[in-house]
Amino acid sequence: MKRIKLDRPQIKLLPKTDLHVHLDGSVPPMTLQELAVEQKIDLVEVSKKLGIGGLKSGDMNELEAKIFKKQYNSLAEYLVPFEFINVVLRSEEGLKKAAYKLAFDNFREGVRYFECRFAPQKHWVNGFDWLEIVSAVNAGLKQAADEFNNNKEIKAGKEPEFKYAIILCAMRMINQNMGDYYRYLYELHVGLDLQNLAAMASLEVAKLVELCQENGLPVSGFDLAGREDGFPAEVHKTAFLFCYERGISTTCHAGEAYGPESIRSAIKHCHVRRIGHGTQLFNEKGLLNKKGENGKPLNHQERKAYVTDIAEWIADNRIALEVCLKSNSQTLPDLRDLSNHPFPSFLKHQIRIALGTDNRAISRVSVTDEYERVMNLYNIDHKQLRDLCVGGFKAAFYPGPYTEKRAYISRVITYYKKLAGEMGLF
For the residues of 55-115, what is the DSSP string, one character each? Predict the structure, then answer.
């Protein structure tokens, strides 16, 4: 097939997904300021208390320069702004407004389906209960979806509807500055290290997913997020098994800033259906400390076989990788130049890819931006473009019965073919 090149207006028209986008990382500076004013929160004082940003005025220019940076030196540095932003996301109105803005921005650029993920325990305060937290986010998402679905073409059945789901995140690593829940958790338990406390908290998130589903909220999955090195996924195996036994879909941040072992742990120990990032999948050098059955470090052939086994498992079981290019370039110094990204290897191994933004505000990125990067950097053909667009819908943790998901995907494919024909893609 011929290589393709589309302009931004054409890319925006294509039906797309974003299966990996964090609510708190997608609150723009202007919305952050608005919410702070509404809630009478002094952002300069927040900066001092949390030791984040070193703000002097809290104006837009300072937020842009010190909180929403253009570049980060590591994943650990990239994660710092989240605790600052979450200060304004501990009320019903704050969560609703942030969720509405996220959904509006997605739908406006042709994202027909996305999954909003957030860590509910970061938003808890006394008197603001769990179902209220999730309901507030859902209210904002639903408001935007209802507005966009009022389109006459959608009502006439000529275009697929705008849809969304919610994923609840547990955290690999916790500390007392992440909110009241984690502070109380730390204070109320004696003799437990933070890993054990984090595992306790993750099981509670898994239980909350089930509770939300029982109460009719469109919560369709469970995720484990946060820093990987030193915080392995298998610590949270109980939470993942809780989900597995109840048919709750799971994903896991893995292989973002740690080696192939992190990915293997997620798929083989925790039974996840998707992997967040997976960037280190083919990083054989990340296995230099891995030892074989003989107790010796793996040789080159053994490292290659180890990595190949994981890639084959992922491809054969249709485990999707949630790929976020701009975010990867910010958190991983080796990928400042995205021509070094393993994206082409993902394509070569026929692994299902779902392009995502990770954090629209913190990474200053849109789904359209990510599609442009793929076309400019990796010279994909029409079949690969179609697989990217449709693959996201197939990998979705759709909040409804399978027959309904199949029917929705069918409408998406029909619409895609119509647009592709008009654009001369085949």
Answer: -SS--HHHHHHHTS-S--SSHHHHHTHHHHHGGG-SSHHHHHHHHHHHHHHHHHTTEEEEE
Tens of pLDDT, residues 338-389: 999 999 999 999 999 999 999 999 999 999 999 999 999 999 999 999 999 9
List CB contacts of 208: < 8 A, sequence separation 6 or more. Answer: 120, 130, 134, 168
| Nearest Cα to Cα of residue 96 among 47, 151, 148, 136 | 136
Distance CA 160, CA 166 (A): 19
Q: Count other C-beta atoms under 10 Å from residue 161's C-beta.
A: 16
Dist. CA 380–CA 387, nearest whole Å: 11
Q: What is the pTM of this model?
A: 0.95
Q: Identify the structural domains of the chain with CATH numbers, from first to last.
A: 8-27+89-289+296-422 (3.20.20.140)
Q: How confident is the model at residue 302 (pLDDT cuts 50, 70, 90)?
A: confident
Q: What is the C-alpha to C-alpha distance for residues 361 and 370, in angstroms, rounded to an integer?
A: 14
**Cα 222 to the center of its chain, rounded Å:** 11
The residues with which 337 forms a beta bridge, in sequence order, are none
